Amino acid sequence: MVVIGLIGPTFLQLTYLESFILGSVLGAVSPAVVVPRMIKMIENKQGTNKGIPQMVIAGSSLDDIVMIVCFTSLLTIEAGDSLNVMTFINVPLSIILGVGIGILTGLLLSIIFKKIHMRDSLKLALILGICFAYVFLESYIS
User: Fold this and answer.
1) How far apart are CA 37 and CA 30, in angstroms?
2) What residue segments make up the domains of the chain, in order of their start?
3) Which of 23-43 are b and which e, b meaning 16 or more Cβ less than 10 Å from the residue's Cβ?
4) Cα 35 from chain centre
5) Cβ–Cβ under 8 Å, residues 7 and 73
6) pLDDT digits over 104-121, tens only?
7) What are phi and psi of 40, to 5 degrees?
8) Close Cβ partners of 105 (under 8 Å, ≥ 6 residues apart)
9) What is the mean pLDDT of residues 16-30?
């Protein structure tokens, strides 16, 4: 991203901001390329002793998150809106809160399912209902 951002004005006649936006697009790692290769490595038992394929998959996901934040922030600047620190803090905060709420919901549901016997179809309906409720509440929270 930085290389494209710095050479873009010279070679592509873009502004520095436009060059960095282009660099953030090109800097993202495609899961469509990484994941199949890493699965093949896992199947061939290459690097699995140290968990290298799993770390590469996790790293590519993290890279995509960073590039999405950079791209969104740069587009905000390009549109003329002011950029504040909360733009950068909201993404990791949302991820951490989402994982935390997911874990708490899973623990609560596992306790309920152990105490109250119900059919699997009813369990699935309850889980889907909670998922849809979270999606509905997301628009009011953000």
Assistant:
1) 11
2) 1-83, 85-142
3) bbeebbeeeeebeeebeebbe
4) 15
5) no
6) 999 999 999 999 998 989
7) -65, -40
8) 130, 134
9) 88
114 to 108, 109, 128: CA distances (angstroms):
10, 9, 18
- pTM of the full structure: 0.56
Residue that wins the pLDDT comparison between 130 and 84: 130
> Is 4:22 a contact under the CB 8 Å cutoff?
yes
Instruction: Determine contact, residues 57/33, Cβ cutoff 8 Å.
Output: no
| Angle (nearest 5°) at CA 89 between 142 and 56 | 105
Q: Which residues contact 129 (CB under 8 A, 6 or more apart)?
A: none
N-term to C-term CA, the chain = 29
Q: What is the 8-class DSSP label of residue 142?
A: -
pLDDT band at 82 (very low <50, low <70, confident <90, very high): low
Question: Average of pLDDT values for 111-139?
Answer: 91
**Interatomic CA distance for residues 55 and 53, integer angstroms:** 5
Of the candidates 73, 77, 103, the residue with the CA atom closest to the CA atom of residue 90: 73
What are the distances in angstroms from CA 5 to CA 17, 33, 74?
Answer: 7, 24, 11
